[in-house]
Amino acid sequence: MNRKELNPDASPQAAYGARLRSLREARGWTQDDLSERLAYSSVHISAVETGRKPPTLRFSRSADRAFGLAGSVDSFERQYHEMKHGSLLESFPEYVAFEGRAVEIRLYEVGVIPGLLQTQEYAATLEADAVRRGAITSEQAEERVELVARRQAMLARTPPPWIHAVLDESCIRRPMGDPAVMNAQFERLLAVAEMPTTVLQIAPFTMGARRPFSLPVTVLTMADRSIMSYAESAQRGHLERETTSVLPILTAYHQLQAEALSQAASVALIEELRKGSQ
Questions:
Q1: Which of 34, 48, 161, 184 could serve as a FRET partner for 267 with CA atoms 20 to 30 Å apart?
Q2: Which PROSITE patterns match (predicted)?
Q3: CATH superfamily of 8-81
Q4: Residue 143 has pLDDT above 70, yes or no
C-alpha cells in the first residue's frame, strides 16, 4: 500500500489532514475504523488526510466526537473555522494546537500585547483597526477575538503551563483604544505578574543592540520535554520543530531575559503607565 508523506507546513488544509492522520494512527485505527465512527467513507477520509478534499464543518464535528475533542482548544471545528475565514497566518492554527498542550511557554512580543495576555476589549480594538484598514472582514475580526478567549482558557487548566513573557517596551507604550481600554489592559498585566506560574518582564528601549530578537518569537516546551518555536513576519508564520534549530532560539531567549528588567521593575513601570492612563 502506497503511503503519501504529509507536509503539515504546506497549508492550513495540509495541517488539518496531517493532524487527522496522526490522531487516527495514535489510536491504532485504520481509515476503515475511523470511517465507522465518522459515517464518512474511508476514501473520503483519505482525501481529507492527504489534502485532496477540504474538510467541512459537519466532518469536523464528527471528528471531534470520534476523538473526544468537542469544545476543546484542540477541536477540529476550531481548526475548520480558522481555515474557513482565512484570517490567520499560515502555521498559526497548528501552533495554537501545540500551545494548548505545552507545559512551558516562552514568548517575546513587539508593538502589541500578546494574545495570551490581552483583555477582550484590547483584542477587539486591535482587530477593529485591521477591519478599518481593510486587512480583514468584520467576521474575521470576531473569529480572532474568539480565538484569543479560547487560547486563554488553557491557562486555567490543571496544572497550568509556566508562562515566561518578555514584552518589548513598545507593547506597553503604544496606545490601543481609549484610556479605559489601556487601563484595563495594564491591570490585566499586573494580575498576570501575580500568578505563581508566570514571569513577566519588560525589555526596555535602552537595551538597544543587546536585544537578540527584532520580531516576535515563542518557544514551547511540551510534556515530553521536546521544544518547538514559532515566529511571525507580517506575511507568514513559521513553526519550527527541529530541536537543533530551536536550541539557538532558546539560548537567545535566556539572554533576553537576563538583559530585560526584573519582574519587580517591570511591574513598577506598568504601574506608572497605568496611573497615567486613568
A1: 161
A2: HTH_CROC1
A3: lambda repressor-like DNA-binding domains (1.10.260.40)
A4: yes
